[in-house]
Every structure is written in structure tokens, then in C-alpha cells.
Design goal:
Blueprint: E1 4-5, E2 11-13, E3 18-19, H1 84-88, H2 95-115, E4 122-126, H3 136-150, E5 154-157, H4 163-173, E6 178-183, E7 197-201, H5 204-214, E8 217-220, H6 225-239, E9 248-251, H7 254-270, E10 282-284, H8 287-296
Parallel strand pairs: 4-5, 4-8, 5-6, 6-7, 8-9, 9-10
Antiparallel strand pairs: 1-2, 2-3
Helix pairs in contact: 3-4
């Protein structure tokens, strides 16, 4: 279908053809209305004040275009991402609200795809934000970040303090690429000062997809519910063959020993997981052994082995 664009004396069609527009018909302009105030009389209609010429009337405000007034502009769907997950999970919404939520997810995926473009394989390190500098787990994570960077890996964390800061710090000190991939929380978590790149996600599931898709290994340092959530969701995807197995290494010695015992003594004995499922997790007490396991794993990360 041809689309017309207005021009001076000539209209042009989008397919390149030109034509002369029809001449406007000769029509006499309508007579101007008589604005003269009628003379007062007992039989005349009540006088109506012409407010256009009333000296006591305040000037009318200038017309404001809805399309150009910043105060009236509705934020774009991308700008509405913040807080969207909590609203969506509150319960049933109107159909059009669910459609808008789906668009927000798509936009956040696009942002993540752009952010995750890297020139080297990436290892993600999980762990608690509550271990300060000087704590043995902090120093071990710092050493881990340094080892990974020296073998050619980017190191990605949640971007916050504690274990995350330590791994980013060790990577930065060794000259590697240090990345933060955070999740927006009610209590704001500021990025640590050892990041080369940083992005915040609103939706947990979008962030998890990005971490699994773009990481060639996970290293799990001591942590809480968030750390365990990442670990068990990932090995569930491996167990159900939704993704290929890749290295998931639990570093921290005694911290993980009781969990490993629980998996073996309770879950395997009850038949809720198989003996083979235990191989989805690798437990290590040393940074050197953990890095060696990642480099030798058959699935990926071989690009980073130097």
C-alpha cells in the first residue's frame, strides 16, 4: 500500500511515483460572526458577557501538548522494570497487565544478553555477603578470584560485599575481568569497588537464566538461602537433563561437610535422589584443586585453560 507524504504543490508516494494533487474547490469563506453586543431592552434576551474581551478575566493558560509534557509522560516499559516482579507475584492480574509483564521480562532479557557479551569464559562465584575482610572464607574467595583470573577466566559474582567482594577483588588484583550481576532487593546492596562491569536485575529467574547460560562453571563458597537456591536449582536442571552438566564446586571444607552427609545419609537412603546424583556436586577444600577440577571438566571452560 502506498503511503502519501505532504509536500509543497506536489505529493510524493513511497513507491517513487509523483502526481499532482487535485485543486481545491472555489468556496466563498463563511461570513464572520457579529460579535457586537446587542442593545439592552426589556424584550431582548439576557446579555451574555463576551469573556474573550473581558479585561477582568485572567489570561488562559497556554495549551500543553500531552506528547511533550515530561510530567505527563508515562515511563517506558523498560523504565517500569523496577519493582515489577513483586507486583506480578502478588496474584492474578488483568490480562493486559500480564502482557505488559511479559514485555518487561523480554526487555530485561535483552539487556542481559547485551551485558553478558565477553571475550573470555566466565566462572561465577556465589557466597555470603556477611563475611568481612580478614575472615578465612573472605581470604579464600580472594585467592580463588586471583587463581581463576590467572587461568584466563572472567569472574562474576552478585556484585555485593563479603564473598562476592573478595572474589572480584582477587580477580581485579590479578588483572582479570571482574563482573557484578546483582538482584534488586528491598534493602539496597551497593556494588563493591572491585568491579569492571556491573548490572542489576529485577527478576530472579532472568538473572538465573543469564548465570547458567553464560557461566562455564559455578564455585559455591559458604553462604545462606540465596547461595543454596542457586546451587540446587542448577543441579536440578542437570539432573532432569534440561542442561548439560558443568562444574559446580563447593569450596569451604567443614562448612559443606554436613550438607554432603545429609544428601548421602538422608536423600539417597530415602530414594529421593540416586547415588549418581551426588556426582553433580564436587566438594573441595583447596582453591588449587577447585581450579584444576574446573579446567579438566569435559563440558566447557577449556577456552580459559592457559
Amino acid at each position: 500500500m502506498a503511503v502519501l507524504a505532504a509536500g509543497e504543490g506536489m505529493a510524493r508516494m513511497t513507491d517513487g511515483h509523483e502526481f499532482d494533487p487535485p485543486a481545491a474547490p472555489d468556496v466563498d469563506p463563511p461570513a464572520a460572526p457579529d460579535l457586537e453586543t446587542p442593545a439592552a431592552s426589556d424584550d431582548a434576551a439576557p446579555h451574555v458577557r463576551d469573556e474573550r474581551h473581558d479585561p477582568h478575566r485572567p489570561p488562559a493558560p497556554a495549551p500543553v501538548s500531552r506528547h511533550h509534557d515530561p510530567a505527563r509522560r508515562r515511563p517506558s516499559l523498560l523504565e517500569q522494570v523496577s519493582g515489577a516482579e513483586a507486583v506480578f507475584l502478588k496474584g492474578e492480574q488483568a490480562h493486559h497487565d500480564d502482557l505488559e509483564s511479559a514485555v518487561r521480562y523480554f526487555l530485561e532479557f535483552l539487556r542481559g544478553f547485551e551485558f553478558m557479551q565477553m571475550d573470555r569464559p566466565c566462572v561465577t562465584v556465589f557466597g555470603s555477603s556477611r563475611f568481612p575482610e580478614g575472615h578465612p572464607y573472605y581470604e579464600q574467595a580472594r585467592e580463588l578470584g586471583s587463581h581463576l583470573a590467572s587461568h584466563g577466566y572472567a569472574v562474576m559474582t552478585g556484585g555485593g560485599p563479603g564473598i562476592m567482594e573478595a572474589a572480584n577483588r582477587g580477580c581485579r588484583e590479578a588483572g582479570g575481568l571482574s563482573v557484578g550481576c546483582n538482584i534488586t532487593l528491598p534493602h539496597e546492596q551497593h556494588p563493591n569497588p572491585y568491579l569492571d562491569r556491573y548490572m542489576e536485575f529485577e527478576h530472579f529467574f532472568v538473572r538465573k537464566v543469564m548465570l547458567v547460560k553464560y557461566s562455564c562453571a559455578f564455585v559455591v563458597m559458604p553462604g545462606g538461602f540465596g547461595t543454596l537456591d542457586e546451587v540446587f536449582e542448577t543441579i536440578t536442571l542437570m539432573q532432569t537433563e534440561k542442561i548439560d552438566s558443568f562444574p559446580v564446586v563447593c569450596v569451604g571444607g567443614e562448612f559443606w561437610r554436613q550438607m554432603r552427609s545429609f544428601l548421602d545419609r538422608v536423600l539417597v537412603r530415602a530414594g529421593t535422589i540416586s547415588e549418581k546424583d551426588l556426582d553433580l556436586l564436587h566438594f573441595s577444600d583447596s582453591v588449587e584443586e577447585a581450579c584444576s577440577f574446573i579446567r579438566s571438566h569435559p563440558r566447557g571452560c577449556e577456552r580459559g585453560a592457559l
